[in-house]
Amino acid sequence: MASGPGDKHPALLALTSSALLLPAYQGVRADAPPEFIELGTRYSKYEEDNTQGGKTFGGSSQRYEVDAAQFHLLAPVADSWSVAVDVQWEDMSGASPWFVGQSLDGGPKVIMSGASIEDTRTEVSVTTRYYYDRGNAGFNYVRSKEDDYDSNAIALDGALNSTDGLTTYSAALSTSQDDIEPTQGSVPTNTLKADKDISSAWIGVSRIISKNAIVRFGLAYTYRDGFLTDPYKKNDRRPGERNEWAASAGYRQYFIQPDGALQADYRYFDDDWGVASHTLNLAWHQNLGQSTQLIPFLRYYSQGEADFFANIANTDQRHYSEDYRLSSFGAISGGLRVRHEIGNWALTAVGERYETDESWGVYSGEESPALVNYWRYSFGLDYLFK
Amino acid sequence: MKQLTCLLALLCLCGCETVQPWERGTLAKPEMQWQADPMEISLQAQINASKEATSGGQGAAGGGCGCN
User: Which residues of B touch A227 (CB under 8 A)?
Assistant: First the structure.
């Protein structure tokens, strides 16, 4: 990314998109509105490791730090409705990879954006949901605003239980219109003004398979159209369309004796840029008495590089990118989540470490010098009005 | 991979036992939900999506990503 006061942190910008992921799938009780008002807040600190001196021109460089605050309200309305309001603020600072050059020994080294970047983002999401005898239907609107990025997205989702209540069928549709107007700083940007649209569909089915186990499968398709290039990276020119497919599976198994549950989720992703990935999430939810839960979690991720990725881009080609996020690599992350309830209050704390390495992946490719490792901490407070 | 997922789904749907409504108390526990902590799941997914080339798959994608 380019340097400058208005530059956008990749994490920050992606926070926008992922924040809009709509949890259209439902739990066991798809037909039940919330019984009480729920109120929650989180503070999170995201901190990337400095880029190692041997991988950069100009020595070690400090990368991004993000402070994020989240607020969540879920309330029943009348007998059959609920409304949810989510607000998120983020504040970031730091530097990001700008482009990659060749060192004297022939290896690639990254050039960072240099000056520290400062930016904030605000996102507001409102969801209304109607519950009926055998399911529910929801409508969601999300607005995200930054200096150089503005997004409006709407989504519809629904869930239907089978007559025996053992199976829940779910579906969701979404569309968004995003406007990009890069802040002009000390380096040129890839566009002055652009836009893109994102359309997505998802179907899923969950099934109770025993008194203590439930399974879920899902298929998703997403179409992106418009300016998909990173406006702040020096050597970046991507196709104007992207078709994405994802197949997912989830499993929950409760064990009576330890009073705990295994949570497992897997996703396979493929697209027409040549990128594919495997993601496996595992967590163990351990209850300690009635009021405390310990939840260690582990994630493995591996992706293959895009067809047009190269550490040092050939800018004579039609499409090219040096963005490390389009390279082949593997990532392992893990952490611990602790939750303790005191009456109607609940305290939550989370610590997570994320590390990457090209050799950890199942796909081969060039190792980018800009791969990122980070720490993340979150602290939360929830209240249930009952 | 998609074929494998569909096959697993079919096997599961064919091999499930009948669980009566009054036997589903455990399934209503927070640890058995797909999203026990929406704010935590949301933030974790956002960060991962910003550092990786792939994202989504748990619902409709929504919009708003300027991270390209």
Answer: 68
Per CB-CB distance under 8 Å, the chain B contacts of A208 are 16, 19, 24, 27
Q: Is residue A274 part of a domain?
A: yes
Q: Is residue A220 one of the residues assigned to a domain?
A: yes
pTM higher than 0.80: yes
What was the ipTM of the complex prediction?
0.87
pLDDT digits (tens, 9 = 90+) for A21-69: 333 233 334 677 888 999 999 999 999 998 877 788 875 577 889 999 9
B28 touches A at CB < 8 Å: yes
Rounded distance between C-alpha atoms, residue A317 and residue A303, angstroms: 23
By residue range, what is the domain housing residue A277?
A: 98-111+129-385
Residues from chain A that touch B8, judged by Cβ atoms under 8 A, are 217, 249
Record the tokens describing residue A10, joined without a space. Answer: 């990749």
Query: Within a domain: residue A19?
Result: no
Residue by residue, DSSP assigns A34-94 as -SSEEEEEEEEEEEEPPBPGGGBTTS-B---EEEEEEEEEEEEETTTEEEEEEEEEEEEEE
Q: What residue of A is the nearest CA neighbor of B36?
A: A27
CATH number of the domain enclosing A271: 2.40.170.20
Q: Does B3 touch chain A (CB under 8 A)?
A: no
- Total domains present in chain A: 1
**Would you say residue A276 lies in a domain?**
yes
